[in-house]
Amino acid sequence: MRKTAFLLLISGLMLSEACTNQKAEKENVNEKPDVIRERVRPAASGGTSAAYFVYTNSLDKADTLRSVEADFADMVQVHESYETEDGMMGMREQKEVVVQPGQEIRFRQGGLHIMLMGLNQELQAGDSVAVKLKFSGAGEVVKKLPVQP
Ligand SMILES: [Cu+2]
């Protein structure tokens, strides 16, 4: 029981570091919100990373992103970053993302992002990886991304 609580605490700390890296958020201030550098961040095996990219709904009806998978991560979630009342950055899981016809889902640093947890391999800059998005309308969509800081 005690061991479980300790492990949860550790993973919680690692998560908050990956999701709410204060330095990274500050570095990102100069990046215009309309410019998204598509990438997966480098990380050690066993660690946590994030994916940023733009998905456009090319269907003529609204679609819903229901889940995301990656064969290099044990757990993948869609997260939303937000600022708390006292100015801290937090994040929460977003179970579904609805995208209207012709519209984009913009996964970016400091906003909606794909959280990759429990990496089963090291992600090194220069590598190329793929995430699998599952939509209720478009079905499975594979997105290839470079690993970049
Ligand atoms: Cu996150």
TrEMBL record:
<protein>
    <submittedName>
        <fullName>Copper chaperone PCu(A)C</fullName>
    </submittedName>
</protein>
<dbReference type="InterPro" id="IPR036182">
    <property type="entry name" value="PCuAC_sf"/>
</dbReference>
<dbReference type="InterPro" id="IPR007410">
    <property type="entry name" value="LpqE-like"/>
</dbReference>
<dbReference type="InterPro" id="IPR058248">
    <property type="entry name" value="Lxx211020-like"/>
</dbReference>
<dbReference type="Pfam" id="PF04314">
    <property type="entry name" value="PCuAC"/>
</dbReference>
